[in-house]
Amino acid sequence: MRKVVQIIVLALLVTSCGKSDKGQVVGVKGKSWNPERPYGMILVEGGSFIMGKSDYDIAGLKDAPTKTVTVPSFYMDETEITNSEYKQFVYYVRDSVVRQKLAEAAEFAGGGAGAGGGNQGSIQDYAFKNSQSGNNNAQQNLTPYQEFSKHYDPMKQLLNWDIDIKWKTGEYPDQDYVMVMDEFFLSDDQSYNGERMMDVTKFKYSYKEMDIQAAARDKSGDRSNFVKEHDVEVYPDTTVWIKDFNYSYNVPMHNDYFIHEAFDNYPVVGVNWHQAKAFSQWRTLYLKNYKKDKGSRNETSRVESFRLPSEAEWEYAARGGLQSATYPWGGPYTKDDRACFLANFKPLRGDYAADEALYTVEADSYEPNGFGLYNMSGNVAEWVDTSYNPNSYEYMSSMSPNVNNAKNKRKVIRGGSWKDVSYYLQVSTRDYEYADTARSYIGFRTVQNYLGNTFNLNSNF
């Protein structure tokens, strides 16, 4: 009988861990990792290349001497971020801000759902989902985390996305709703043509980020000093179409370029470096929330961050696998064998339309480069996550180099634009703009790190 008990105990010990490792260290085995290519992105396999000007530096800036560097693999947007894609960010922030104000007003007003609004309901329809107002069961059935954790914030209330925002004045349900919505529109003396114009300065995206490089070198162990919160206005500055060009009639572009659906597939412009960074952070959060809602096993729903490319990553991607080429298509000419221009830029003196484009063109116009990326030269110049220093090539690392100084407000832009001459289209040409400045000829595209070894990729890519 004793032997039988011993055998049962031994069997329990072997099976108690879920699987037998025979006492050997086999590692923690999770799910197999199958990389998912983000929508609209191209995998750029990492490698080494000669960065800088291999051609004659006609401008004599001497800010891009040749240097062999190596970059890891990453995903990059196939095209520049379009108006349509950026509008998704803008509308998300706009609707979040409006719903927040409506929910706060509903909590202040009190009363049950539909109170005082007749058939149209009331502002209470927009109350926080976990609010006490009109919901006596909101604090029941708390999870242990919600009840006992010091990290749980009961004031972090959930917005109600189940009901549409009523934008038409004739559909406003009650007085409280009217007073909230009036805050988001300009006064009558600032509007004209009978239009009710929105005050776009009201819509800001707030997010936090940490300066990991500085935190890693700090010996105090207190990371709170390196966490910064940002409030960024999200709407593009459409006035750039006026301010960038004196004695020029660009009012139609000012009025329609971002709003009208005719320009949905055109690259967004009028966004500064901070707005491009905010979009990247929101894109990460948007995907993370989706995976969390889908019931990911990990509550944090780990998502590799979207971000702006470094200057080295951008140039490597722009070259499309061609070493020491002048342009993404090679060069040294900007026309093909049929005398057609290969990019959207200013090809002749005063003749912007010689390349069949007056301003910007659709983001997927012209032929892609060797990596499948469109308009790496021309159309709009692109923000990168690098500060401009004319001497940075001399001291930057040769492994995944990047020089980004928070105190240096000059940020690198690459690729040239529709209003630039061909020199700025060269993949090695460096230019800059101040981080808080928006232009009618600067846009951006994002990247995401690739996790794993690209040399073992399967046919899915």
Automatic annotation (TrEMBL):
Q: Is the Lipoprotein keyword given for this protein?
A: yes
Keyword match Lipoprotein: yes
SUPFAM superfamilies to which the protein is assigned, alphabetical: C-type lectin-like (SSF56436)
Cross-referenced PROSITE patterns: PROKAR_LIPOPROTEIN
A single Gene Ontology molecular function, please?
Answer: formylglycine-generating oxidase activity
| Chain ranges of the Sulfatase-modifying factor enzyme-like domain | 40-93, 237-447
Question: Which UniProt keyword terms apply here?
Answer: Lipoprotein
- Give the matching InterPro entries: CTDL_fold (IPR016187), Glid_motil-assoc_lipo_GldK (IPR019866), Sulfatase_Mod_Factor_Kinase (IPR051043), SUMF_dom (IPR005532), SUMF_sf (IPR042095)
Q: What is this protein called?
A: Gliding motility-associated lipoprotein GldK
